[in-house]
Amino acid sequence: QVQLVESGGGLVQTGGSLRLSCTASGVSFDRSDMAWFRQAPGKEREFVARVGWTAPSLSTLYGDSVKGRFTVSRDNAKNTQYLQMNSLQPEDTAVYYCNADGYYTTTYHPGKYWGQGTQVTVSS
Fold this sequence. Notes:
Elements: E1 3-7, E2 10-13, E3 18-25, E4 34-39, E5 46-51, E6 60-62, E7 70-75, E8 80-85, E9 94-100, E10 103-104, E11 108-109, E12 113-114, E13 118-123
Parallel strand pairs: 2-13
Antiparallel strand pairs: 1-3, 3-8, 4-5, 4-9, 5-6, 7-8, 9-12, 9-13, 10-11
């Protein structure tokens, strides 16, 4: 089976940091896009970040609301992607989902593989 598992969520104060991880099993995504989305209660799913596979440091994309604060990276040897979140704000509170095998045109189109999500809560 193909499975994506997120970890690293939790409760943090405003201005704090968290690092999320997403590990894939059942298939290798080392030649596929990896991405993060999030969804807050009552809001639409939002694109957060993407990292490509050919040159990860040169193929990152970020949603406008997280630019300058979040950093996405990947470790293909571990079949894992990460999301380093700094300067967290209450507006970042959401369930964060790992996604694999998407693509970018004008907006980022998610692939069909999703993780179960990990909760991030930022307190005032």
